[in-house]
Description:
By secondary structure, the chain is an alpha/beta fold. The protein has helices spanning 24-32, 45-49, 53-57, 77-91, 105-108, 120-134, 154-163, 186-195, 209-218, 228-232, 236-246, 255-273, 276-282, 284-291, 297-304, 310-329; strands spanning 13-15, 38-39, 43-44, 68-73, 95-100, 139-146, 168-175, 200-203, 223-226.
Amino acid sequence: MSGVPFSDAIFPLYLAPMAGVTDKSFRQICKEYGADVLVTEFVSAEGVFRRNQRTREYLDFDEIERPIGVQLFGADAEHMAEAARQVVDWVAPDFIDLNFGCPVNKVVAKNGGSALLKDCPTLATVAASVVRAVAPVPVTAKIRIGWDADLINARYVARILENCGIAALAVHGRTRAQGYSGEADWRVIGEVAQSVGLPVIGNGDLFSAEDVARRRAETKISGAMIGRAAMSAPWIFRQIKHYLITGERLPPPSLSERWNIILNHCRAQVGEWGVEEPAIRSLRARLMAYSKRLPEAKLLRDKFQHVSTVAEVEAIACKHIVQSESSALHPMSLVAI
């Protein structure tokens, strides 16, 4: 056991919560390919507190997604605690996750997300209030290593959160100032894992099974959180598990299987939305991410910018598979998709 109270996996693999990405349709794809723990897109505690219907839709999940947590952000301890209670009453997640890492300006401007890394008294009050409000439901948190290069305080923050009763901690190896640029600092993540008794989940620049195996060996992390890599390759969870067990690389899915993933995602999204064209348009950015792992990616991206129906995506898939097979037989042929 890793010590994480809501996963039986020896070394659990988390799907990182990503706004606009980790909706129900995508979470279930990642679950199918081996993600052990899922977390919703981040949800405004104020929206929950005010019982905003649009906010409540972000809380929806199916039983097959368990264990799953709902991630909340906000800086008002009383409202965060009440929102967490409401979430537990409404959907009974396996845990509540607190977002102390989001670098987005509109969140930080309201003292939410990573802004609380430089306001530790408020961070502690929020964490302790939520832990008390939903006990015995576990509460976890996600942080960055600090606000900027002059304030890298992840170890200090981790000890505060441990004292507040946080059950597990995900640490992204960048500062708020870095955003998603530069390299994740795994030295700091390792220091955090050594400085607290709670399970630490490492996050940042994990793009392959080998990356995860190396970071696991170098640090005392109890699990790994996969974000951007899963956007283009949700099968990465299966590859990581296979590599950790056998030491062997598992090849990526065939081209046909990858297209099946894309098409199943499109159909599931339409099923969730109930209207086809808005659902498919909402997936255009997601289709762009999938294209990174496909031959002739640039041509595919050009086509994905304009799709509005499942049939259009199916037609692109059919043509792409046929032409890729033709190119394999005749490597010198260059046929426009």
